Amino acid sequence: MKTNIVLIGMTGSGKSTIGEKLSQQLGMPFKDIDLFIEHTTKQSIPELFEVSEAHFRAIETKACKKIAATENHTVISCGGGVVLNPENIQALRKTGWIVFIDRPIEHIIKDIEIGHRPLLKEGKGKLYQFHEQRLNLYQSFADFRVDNQSGLEDVLNTIKNNLP
Ligand code: S3P
């Protein structure tokens, strides 16, 4: 049964903020896949990337499968690269409704902090490349797309008004 709400979208699109608020408003638990990975491996995302991106991606796939199989009635926020492996989405969509948080790339670039994001070490410019590579994937994997341009409350209401 599809009882989870799964948020996908670019890094900096607002998945975690929206996910946390949505879970509070709907009285559902919240699960962030990156945080789950950090708890279970006891390593930070940058540390896992230091081994290699492939190492992180393999752990990410295991986490998606585990969370999809064990969580229900949960709001799940995914890392931006979750769409790179279709296995991840196949697993998550068995138990979840997939929502694409679509935020204009210019807004993301303006606001994002490179801080802990290993893929942005070379600068924010990389985000244009990721956006180009991933936009079609987000669109094609999503059951529902919401524009994140007009403020948090609007996004939350749009999602709540369109729940399956
Ligand atoms: C990634 C996004 C990050 C994190 C990892 C890889 C990506 O998550 O999973 O650094 O490939 O875009 P956020 O989307 O939460 O920043």
TrEMBL record:
One GO biological process term: aromatic amino acid family biosynthetic process
Pfam families per record: SKI
EC identifiers of the protein: 2.7.1.71
Coiled coil: none
Recorded GO CC terms: cytosol
Annotated residues for binding of substrate: D34, R57, G80, R134
Keyword NAD set for record: no
Biological pathway: Metabolic intermediate biosynthesis; chorismate biosynthesis; chorismate from D-erythrose 4-phosphate and phosphoenolpyruvate: step 5/7
Location(s), subcellular: Cytoplasm
First-listed, main subcellular location of the protein, grouped into a coarse class: cytoplasm
Note on how the cofactor is bound: Binds 1 Mg(2+) ion per subunit.
Segments traversing the membrane: none
Recorded GO MF terms: ATP binding; magnesium ion binding; shikimate kinase activity
Positions bound to ATP: G12, S13, G14, K15, S16, T17, R117
Enzyme class: transferase
Keywords: Amino-acid biosynthesis, Aromatic amino acid biosynthesis, ATP-binding, Cytoplasm, Kinase, Magnesium, Metal-binding, Nucleotide-binding, Transferase
Domain of life per record: Bacteria
Family under the similarity heading: Belongs to the shikimate kinase family.
Family matches, as HAMAP family: Shikimate_kinase
Subunit record text: Monomer.
Protein name: Shikimate kinase
Provenance organism: Carnobacterium viridans
